[in-house]
Design goal:
The protein is of the alpha/beta class. Helices cover 32% and strands 21% of the residues. It contains 19 helices and 16 strands. Strands 1-2-3-4-5-6-7-8-9-10-11-12-13-14-15-16 form a 16-stranded mixed sheet. This is F-box domain-containing protein.
């Protein structure tokens, strides 16, 4: 039986493969026997370490199904796979699931648009997989599927439970504790789902007992009785002793009632005074040393701005102040906000001003806060005021996207003068400070060139 050849591009690099629609069309148009090249292709398949199947057209996929299965079966040292439209691919290419299941050296698995076939693939794997990213079809688990058809989510990774370290799930089923299944080595869990009412703290802590990094994202939290969920989670018999990082908004964090210290808390956005009591409860629950938060100024009164942060031991803060639609006097608003900052034990402060809808504010006849407040005051004067009122602060990172302004200041206290000294840090020294902060360079530094159009005064 003749085989249609896989194009050289598929084999061309021993450490990476990409299969795209035009390649598959080429295969269909130029079929020929592989009898002369089969031994050569098998040896080249053995060199593969990473495979990305990016399929956009499925009409011709069946023509190369046997070749794909053969290549993957021979790629016994394959370590990384990435399958777009995983279920369509696995359904059309009969035998592909068994081919992947025969591998013994996979470490990293990424599946997108996953349904029944993708879950069966995961359950068939016997490699020491350490990292899994899986995106389910949004409606797959909401169609009333019988759990027996694809298994509980907690069972999908049982074949490599003793190896799994990083797990990222998008639109997964519930991660209920199931029949004793645990993943003791999982260090990072990232979940994006619409169905937060199916998640319990007890299930998460039991299934992933040694987790240190947790990222949770959900869009329908408004439909959840967060107080009821919080009370239920407070009664959980399973708890983590601590977390290194938590990325979750205040509503999810409040409902989880973690009750353990969290070193870094990010992903927090507040824009209404009703959120403050939950924010304070969360800060008391997890006592983060490092916090990244966005504050929408338009949702707060002057009095509320002075109460954003309670007394806390937070030492590193990255705060984005979103100024659109804010009608408050900016001098007073910033003064009240600094009053709130005085409740923290800040050593590092990254302060970003975000104000991108100039046209909307113009229609509302709202003064531009940058032109009418920050520019006249001057960056150096504002940073100096911060340093005077935050006696423990050592670094102030000041950002303003609309003015392409990004400056890092070092603060030193001068006892003989009784006032802080402020010096701009540049070059390698700046890079070192930002890299050693809990906020990554990507989070803190914008992508525009570091050319200050907002002149500092010293």
């Amino acid at each position: 039986m003749g085989h249609s050849p896989l194009p050289d591009a598929i084999h061309g690099q021993g450490d990476f493969i990409a299969v795209e629609a035009d390649m598959l069309d080429t295969v269909q148009r130029t079929p020929r026997s592989m009898s002369d090249d089969e031994e050569r292709d098998e040896s080249r398949s053995a060199l593969l370490r990473s495979l990305h199947l990016e399929i956009w057209e499925f009409n011709n996929l069946s023509c190369v199904s046997d070749d794909l299965v053969r290549v993957i079966t021979n790629a016994q040292d394959l370590q990384t796979i990435w399958l777009d439209y995983a279920d369509d691919l696995l359904t059309i290419c009969d035998g592909l699931t068994n081919a992947f299941g025969s591998l013994r050296n996979l470490h990293c698995v990424t599946l997108h648009a996953t349904r029944e076939q993708g879950t069966l693939l995961l359950e068939s794997m016997q490699s020491p997989v350490t990292s899994v990213t899986i995106s389910f079809d949004e409606d797959f688990w909401s169609r009333g599927k019988n759990d027996n058809e694809a298994g509980e989510a907690a069972t999908l990774f049982d074949g490599f439970a003793e190896y799994l370290i990083d797990l990222k799930l998008v639109h997964p089923p519930s991660l209920s504790a199931y029949d004793g299944f645990q993943y003791p080595r999982v260090d990072l869990l990232s979940v994006e789902t619409y169905y937060w009412d199916t998640y319990d703290l007890a299930d998460l802590t039991y299934t992933f007992p040694n987790l240190t990094r947790l990222r949770l994202d959900g869009d329908n939290t408004d439909s959840i009785d967060v107080d009821e969920r919080r009370l239920a989670n407070m009664e959980s018999e399973y708890h983590w002793t601590s977390l290194h990082s938590l990325i979750a908004d205040e509503l999810i964090t409040y409902s989880l009632a973690l009750g353990c210290p969290v070193r870094f808390w990010g992903g927090v956005q507040i824009g209404a005074e009703v959120q403050l009591s939950r924010l304070w409860t969360c800060l008391n629950d997890i006592q983060p040393m490092h916090l990244s938060i966005m504050i929408f100024f338009s949702g707060f009164s002057l009095d509320a701005l002075s109460r954003i942060f309670p007394v806390a031991e937070t030492s590193h803060l990255r705060v984005c102040l979103y100024l659109n639609h804010c009608t408050l006097d900016m001098f007073q608003a910033l003064d009240k906000f600094i009053e709130s900052l005085e409740n923290l034990s800040l050593v590092f402060l990254a302060l970003e001003f975000d104000h991108d809808s100039f046209r909307e504010n113009a229609k509302l006849e709202i003064p531009d806060p940058i032109d009418n407040f920050l520019l006249p005051m001057g960056a150096w004067a504002f940073v100096h005021q911060l340093a005077e009122r935050l006696p423990q602060v050592k670094y102030i990172h000041f950002l303003c996207k609309q003015r392409q302004y990004d400056v890092l200041w070092e603060v030193s206290w001068r006892p003989r003068i009784g006032s802080p000294g402020i010096e701009e840090i540049t070059g390698d020294a700046r890079k070192k400070v930002l890299e050693e902060s809990p906020f990554t360079v990507d989070n803190v530094t914008p992508t525009y060139p570091l050319t200050a159009s907002w002149d500092s005064e010293q």
